[in-house]
Design a protein that fits this description.
The complex is a heterodimer of chains A (107) and B (122).
Chain A (H helix, E strand, L loop, with lengths): L3 E4 L2 E4 L5 E7 L7 E6 L6 E5 L3 E2 L7 E6 L2 E6 L9 E8 L2 E4 L3 E5 L1
Parallel strand pairs in A: 2-11
Antiparallel strand pairs in A: 1-3, 3-8, 4-5, 4-9, 5-6, 7-8, 9-10, 9-11
Chain B lengths: L2 E5 L3 E2 L5 E8 L7 E7 L6 E6 L5 E3 L7 E6 L4 E6 L8 E11 L4 E3 L7 E5 L2
Parallel strand pairs in B: 2-11
Antiparallel strand pairs in B: 1-3, 3-8, 4-5, 4-9, 5-6, 7-8, 9-10, 9-11
The chains are: A mainly beta (107), B mainly beta (122).
């Protein structure tokens, strides 16, 4: 099964900062990667799909890039509502797998 | 936007079967395929499996021997059964829609239920 490894596991940032989270796949997955945001007590919310496509209604400060094994989620000008945990997800051989998550909190 | 709502017992005894139902609204259940995902407290997300409205299923290999999913198109619902539960199955269980692009083979979950906590305890 394909494994997804996110880095860092957590990071501290301030409002207005630019943030980058990395997701590495154990083997190539083309652009078959999505990113989700999860706030405490809430369901995950889809941000990015197909590695770089912005889900409808998601602010443009979120962007995704990458293909093959290395992917990034970038948040430009972090807003108070962006402090959350972020997960990457891939689909291969009929299965989904998720990264372990990256928690973004206040510095 | 698709709305999903999980329902079922919040407490299940060890060795018994966990049963949950997801009710889909604002779209026909035939529009998408459907998945279950769970999340133990303080931990990450684990995909349990998916069901197509044809009834075809795919399960996480690590749970396959204990999982059964079904769909009732007349009620716009799909269901999860997980047998022989232990404390390790205590988690928030989410149902989600799945968008699949047959040209690219890409898949993701645009809509999620709010989640339901299932505790396994005697």
């Amino acid at each position: 099964a394909i494994q997804l490894t996110q880095s860092p596991s957590s990071l501290s940032a301030s409002v207005g900062d630019s943030v980058t989270i990395t997701c590495r796949a154990s083997q190539g997955i083309s652009s078959n990667l999505a990113w989700y945001q999860q706030k405490p007590g809430k369901a995950p919310k889809l941000l990015i799909y197909d590695a770089a496509s912005l889900q409808s209604g998601v602010p443009s400060r979120f962007s995704g890039s990458g293909s093959g094994t290395d992917f990034t989620l970038s948040i430009s000008s972090l807003q108070p509502e962006d402090f959350a945990t972020y997960y990457c997800q891939q689909f291969n051989s009929y299965s989904w797998t998720f990264g372990q998550g990256t928690k973004v909190d206040f510095k | 936007q698709v709305h999903l709502q999980e329902s079922g017992p919040g407490l299940v005894k060890p060795s018994e079967t966990l049963s949950l139902t997801c009710t889909v609204s604002d779209t026909s259940i035939s529009t998408y395929s459907w998945s279950w995902i769970r999340q133990p407290a303080g931990k990450g997300l684990e995909w349990i499996g998916r069901i197509y409205t044809s009834g075809i299923t795919n399960y996480n290999p690590s749970l396959k021997s204990r999982v059964t999913m079904s769909v009732d198109t007349s009620k716009n619902q799909f269901s999860l059964k997980l047998s022989a539960v232990t404390a390790a199955d205590t988690a928030v269980y989410y149902c989600a829609s799945e968008e699949y692009d047959s040209l690219t083979g890409y898949s993701h979950a645009p809509d999620w239920g709010q989640g339901t906590l299932v505790t396994v305890s005697s």
